[in-house]
């Protein structure tokens, strides 16, 4: 039986399989265990007088980490964190652990050791709760997409041409030529709308980011969606509704995990506050004397300032044409601006990058030629064909899954969200 299922079994005899995550021996006749099986936790009491002298002995030689099958009566106990404890009548060690387990990693261990021993760290209930939460959030996300009629597709991760910025590309050997690991599946999703109309994918993206911040990985889970006949306003509304939906689902279903993280989450109000890029850099100058030359990225610190200024989710939109890739649609009302939006959130910074897509081949070719170094349209022959043969207004977005979890749970560092994080200096385990 799984530990998540035992609360309805009060007063009954149950058998559970689990790992020993904490143990306390009191003399040679009494042992207290904390058992965890990845779905729940329970405290167990083992008494020599109940179990039998010979049968009890093996527990005295056991170390933390061992796997164990225990049978006993589940009794109410207000002192136990779960409100009940297992009074064990018999047990069987499934596989022993080793005494060195104790020295593998502790709360006091350095970050480097914690990362090297990540396979041990994730055996703890708190790390486990993040991974479980991430799985739940993905479920809510997929539910939202399916409820809106989107279909899931699987674009390639090995690509020939860049989607975002040249400087952050991982180059790989691909037989006798070079290829790249994808930075975004957007361009392929744009092709897929001609087949399925509205699509999404949840895949890793790779960024050769040298920046060692608490919100950057070199491999992250990228949730991307693209919709045909969807303009900029439809897009922003779609994303706002999606985030509000996920928050509602988390509030309804994941209170136990929120509690573990001391997190009180409130339903989120839509529409979110909006500010144009131009107004944002003016606000930073006027209020905080931070100068950002028009057309330059708002880096980490000023971005945080902006989020703190409003203290709520923020849609930063209409970035200048010069600072965005050639696929962003130029705003017909101001040719210097694009119909693009980043969603900024407290605690995780930029959560979503989004925009309406350019459909005018002439404008795209002009911007490709102006890029430094210029982009060769032949490398994008198939992408240009999407414009040549019956294009439609369309829009889409990319959301960093780990950043969403950071914000929802209030976790400080992105590496704690990830099963096995990849950063500039970290490739193992
Ligand atoms: O803003 P970005 O670069 O947008 C794109 O890649 C678009 N082509 C997506 C699209 O429209 N389909 O990345 C999208 C999001 C960011 O807002 C951020 O949440 C996340 O991806 N992200 C990262 N997360 C973790 N580590 C990194 N190094 C990240 N870089 C981007």
Structure description:
The protein has 429 residues and is an alpha+beta fold. It folds into 2 domains: 3-104, Nucleic acid-binding proteins (OB fold (Dihydrolipoamide Acetyltransferase, E2P), Beta Barrel); 119-416, Bira Bifunctional Protein, Domain 2 (BirA Bifunctional Protein, domain 2, 2-Layer Sandwich), CATH 3.30.930.10. Helices cover 31% and strands 28% of the residues. It contains 14 helices and 18 strands. The protein has an 8-stranded mixed sheet with strand order 6-10-11-18-17-16-13-12, sandwiched between helices. Strands 1-2-3-5-4 form a 5-stranded mixed beta barrel. A hairpin with a 2-residue loop joins strand 8 (171-174) and strand 9 (177-181). Bound molecules: 4-amino-1,4-dioxobutan-2-aminium adenosine-5'-monophosphate. 4-amino-1,4-dioxobutan-2-aminium adenosine-5'-monophosphate binds next to strand 11, strand 17, strand 18 and helix 14.
List keywords for this structure.
binds 4-amino-1,4-dioxobutan-2-aminium adenosine-5'-monophosphate, single chain, 14 helices, 429 residues, elongated, 18 strands, BirA Bifunctional Protein, domain 2, OB fold (Dihydrolipoamide Acetyltransferase, E2P), eight-stranded mixed beta sheet, 2 domains, alpha+beta
CATH superfamily grouping of the largest domain: Bira Bifunctional Protein, Domain 2
Mean pLDDT over the full residue set: 96
Termini Cα gap: 31 Å
Tell me the strand order in the biggest sheet: 6-10-11-18-17-16-13-12
Number of domains: 2
Which molecules are bound besides the chains?
Answer: 4-amino-1,4-dioxobutan-2-aminium adenosine-5'-monophosphate
Percentage of residues in helical conformation: 25-40%
Low-confidence stretches: none
Radius of gyration: 26 Å
Q: Which class do the helix and strand fractions yield?
A: alpha+beta
Q: Determine and state the CATH class of the largest domain.
A: Alpha Beta
């Amino acid at each position: 039986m799984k530990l998540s299922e035992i609360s309805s079994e009060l007063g009954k005899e149950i058998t559970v399989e689990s790992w020993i995550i904490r143990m306390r021996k009191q003399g040679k006749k009494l042992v207290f265990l904390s058992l965890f099986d990845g779905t729940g936790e329970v405290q167990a009491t083992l008494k020599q007088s109940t179990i039998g002298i010979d049968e009890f002995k093996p527990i005295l030689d056991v170390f933390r980490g061992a796997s164990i099958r225990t049978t006993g009566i589940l009794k109410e106990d207000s002192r136990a964190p779960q409100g009940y404890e297992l009074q064990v009548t018999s047990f069987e060690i499934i596989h022993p652990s080793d005494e060195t387990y104790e020295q593998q990693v502790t709360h006091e261990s350095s970050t480097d050791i914690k990362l090297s021993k990540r396979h041990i760290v994730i055996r703890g209930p708190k790390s486990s709760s993040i991974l479980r939460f991430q799985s739940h959030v993905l479920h809510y996300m997929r539910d939202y997409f399916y409820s809106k009629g989107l279909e899931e597709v699987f674009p390639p991760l090995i690509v020939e041409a860049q989607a975002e910025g040249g400087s952050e590309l991982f180059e790989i050997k691909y037989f006798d030529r070079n290829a790249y690991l994808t930075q975004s599946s957007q361009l392929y999703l744009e092709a897929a709308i001609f087949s399925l109309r509205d699509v999404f994918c949840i895949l890793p993206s790779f960024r050769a980011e040298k920046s060692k911040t608490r919100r950057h990985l070199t491999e992250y889970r990228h949730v991307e969606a693209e919709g045909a006949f969807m303009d900029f306003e439809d897009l922003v509304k779609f994303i706002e509704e999606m985030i509000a939906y996920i928050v509602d689902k988390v509030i309804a279903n994941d209170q136990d995990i929120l509690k573990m993280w001391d997190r009180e989450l409130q339903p989120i109000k839509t529409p979110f506050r909006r500010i144009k890029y131009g107004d944002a850099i003016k606000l930073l100058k006027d209020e905080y004397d931070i100068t950002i030359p028009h057309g330059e990225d708002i880096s980490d610190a000023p971005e945080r300032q902006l989020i703190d200024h409003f203290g709520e989710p923020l849609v930063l939109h209409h970035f200048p044409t010069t600072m965005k890739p050639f696929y962003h649609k130029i705003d017909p009302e101001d040719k210097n601006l694009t119909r693009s939006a980043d969603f900024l959130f407290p605690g995780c910074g930029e959560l979503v990058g989004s925009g309406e897509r350019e459909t005018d081949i002439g404008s795209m070719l002009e911007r490709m030629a102006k890029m430094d170094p210029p982009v060769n349209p032949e490398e994008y022959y198939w992408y240009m064909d999407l414009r040549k043969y019956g294009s439609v207004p369309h829009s889409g977005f990319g959301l960093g899954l780990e950043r969403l979890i950071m914000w929802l749970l209030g976790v400080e560092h992105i590496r704690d969200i990830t099963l096995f994080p990849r950063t500039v200096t970290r490739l193992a385990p």
